Amino acid sequence: MAPSSLSPAWQALQAHAKTLTRIRLTDLFEQDHARADRFALELEGLFLDYSKNRLTNKTIDLLRALAEEAQLAHWIERLFAGEPVNGSEGRPAFHMALRADPAQPMRIGEVDVMPEVAAQLARMEEFSEALRGGRWTGYDGRPIADLVSIGIGGSYLGPALAVEALAGPKPTGPRVHFLANPDGGAVSRLLAGLDPATTLFLVVSKSFTTAETKLNADAARDWFLAQGGKREDLPKHFRAVSTNRSAVAEFGLDADAAFAMWDWVGGRYSLWSTVGLPIAVAHGFAAFRELLAGARAMDRHFRSAPIERNMPALLALIGLWYNGCHGAESHAIIPYDSALGLLPAYLQQLVMESNGKGVTRDGKAVTMPTSPVVWGGVGTEVQHAFLQAFHQGPRLLPVDFIGVAEDRHGRQAHHEMLLANLIGQAEALMGGSSQTDTQRTCPGNRPSNVILMQRLDARTLGQLLALYEHKTFVEGVVWHINSFDQWGVELGKKLASRVEAEIHYGDALDHHDPSTAALIRRVRNGRGV
Ligand SMILES: O=P(O)(O)OC[C@H]1O[C@H](O)[C@H](O)[C@@H](O)[C@@H]1O
């Protein structure tokens, strides 16, 4: 990309980056003994240490100028004011209303959405508590023992992450399962372990047009009817979450009984809505409210803190700095807690679906690379797998290490080992080790963020997820892109549904390229078509 196409703030940052090429992170700590305190932030139960980054005071000033140049404060206000920040769909992105203080109005135009939000929360509470209390019974009068949430993308990843993250040693309510992929093996394995009389299926789809979810919901219904359930029993065993009432009714479910959501909530921002029902069923409605409260605390902080003390803005600017001025192409998420194992996958959707865009809000080609490739895994496992490349590979691989300070399992040795490894990795990446043998040398000077959750509870999890939501928004603002649409997903969907029909019906394939046609033929041959 020609430097001339870059804005003044980016040009200043790139020039500044050249002056830092010889600086070592360890020297920055030598020069400033207060660095560890100054480059850290705490918000209730969430602590961010960003001191092990290639940042000086000047870098922070220039990054703040970058945010100001992109009018970040104005965009934050637009976001919270319910303005149509999702320009290509003419909608607000108003997920903050789902977790807002119920006493305060949250308006889109003239309409306060809080009464509707409160009404759905009340329905969620009633339903989830009835399930947990054994008062919701199946067709033979026994309480529901298993909830299967059928949904994909945003209708799966957030709820599945939170259900797993907050799990204790034993379920405290019905067992909660997820069915996302249209994978026959997964469907068969799950159904084989269930009793239709004590299973409830929640079909979660904002659009209720998602092919995978419909196929899995059809399979669940067929199984239910084949295993002894009757049509008149369906309302006890199937409920929907959707904005699309007519499609819910067409599927054969009572649209009035469906849990509503809104087109101003993007799928990947929807775990705070009725989409989060599995979380309330698994952990109780009080926990769900705590999750919302944690996110609300982060919303307040994001809206009010100055950029240099604003956790989401700082994380975003650090990411932009490596992406835009150091050629970093990826961002790794490494939680040192297996309960957060789905966090990398959840953030892949949040970040890459939001910011994997090639044109700006007004349709011009972007002048900087946008979304990094988000990836990761759980520590310490990844130390025995891919962290080698962080220590000695030539690429710059920015990483967030996430840990939980308090042990919640009563297993001190395990807890201490996990956290010692997290801290040790960050230290080793920065310090490196010089040896006479170059093969054994770790050059060091490699950055990382460390996020320590005081404890892994619903409130702190809410804070963490809202932190990454707003971080993603800030990056999108600086790139001048719309973080709330996902038009790229549509093309693949269209082609897949045409190919599916061609596989099934054996249609002519002349309009395909030879590679695609040959692949379709192979699949047909496998089916004997
Ligand atoms: O909730 P649904 O309408 O079924 O959508 C499920 C998912 O599928 C789509 O393809 C989108 O890319 C995702 O953003 C969305 O979360």
TrEMBL record:
It is an enzyme of class 5 (isomerase). GO terms for molecular function: carbohydrate derivative binding; glucose-6-phosphate isomerase activity; monosaccharide binding. The active site is at residues 353, 384, 493. Its main location: cytoplasm. It comes from the Bacteria. SUPFAM superfamilies: SIS domain (SSF53697). GO terms for biological process: gluconeogenesis; glucose 6-phosphate metabolic process; glycolytic process. Pathway: Carbohydrate biosynthesis; gluconeogenesis; Carbohydrate degradation; glycolysis; D-glyceraldehyde 3-phosphate and glycerone phosphate from D-glucose: step 2/4. Catalyzes the reversible isomerization of glucose-6-phosphate to fructose-6-phosphate. The keyword Ion transport does not apply. The gene is pgi. It comes from Hypericibacter adhaerens. It catalyses: alpha-D-glucose 6-phosphate = beta-D-fructose 6-phosphate. This is Glucose-6-phosphate isomerase. It is found in: Cytoplasm. GO terms for cellular component: cytosol. Pfam families: PGI (PF00342). Gene3D superfamilies: 1.10.1390.10, Glucose-6-phosphate isomerase like protein, domain 1. The keyword Transmembrane does not apply. Its EC number is 5.3.1.9. InterPro entries: G6P_Isomerase, G6P_Isomerase_C, Phosphoglucose_isomerase_CS, SIS_dom_sf, SIS_PGI_1, SIS_PGI_2. Belongs to the GPI family. Keywords: Cytoplasm, Gluconeogenesis, Glycolysis, Isomerase.
